[in-house]
Amino acid sequence: MARRYWLMKSEPDVFSFDDLLASPRRRTGWDGVRNYQARNLMRDDFQVGDGVLYYHSRTKVPGVVGLARVVEGGHPDPTQFVRGHKYEDAKSDPDDPRWYQVTIEGVEAFEEVVSLETLKDTAALEDMAVVQRGQRLSVQPVTAAEWRTVLRLGGVRKDPTR
Questions:
Q1: Model's pTM, two decimal places?
Q2: Minimal CA–CA distance to 39: which of 84, 79, 68, 82?
Q3: Most exposed among 31, 96, 101, 124, judged by the fewest C-beta atoms under 10 Å?
């Protein structure tokens, strides 16, 4: 299967790209996603080796701040089964889990944020999901052309996620 690319949104005060880079082995499970469309993408479409644009939302300058890669495809999100956890789902059955996550690994931070404004002002990105009005999904597909354009905007000459 061909390599795919994704944009994953996180609020920096919840889990920033710096937090990812400081994590053990620079890895984290992308837990807490409680949207069925995003869940389906992570469960069915994410594959080991896929590239990830790490996007900070709900911040003064929202935008892409770094690159990551998928190191474990879709697997059950353990937080759905943790009693009292903010992402607990009492209706989810361990034999038939409702929620999934992927594990990502931080690869490289951009020297500067590739801001949402820059993404919107770049003609080659006019169809990119994140620049579309009303697009709020926290996990979004990115085309190979969009991926290369964002890397170029971020000052990355050679794809370090390969």
A1: 0.96
A2: 79
A3: 96
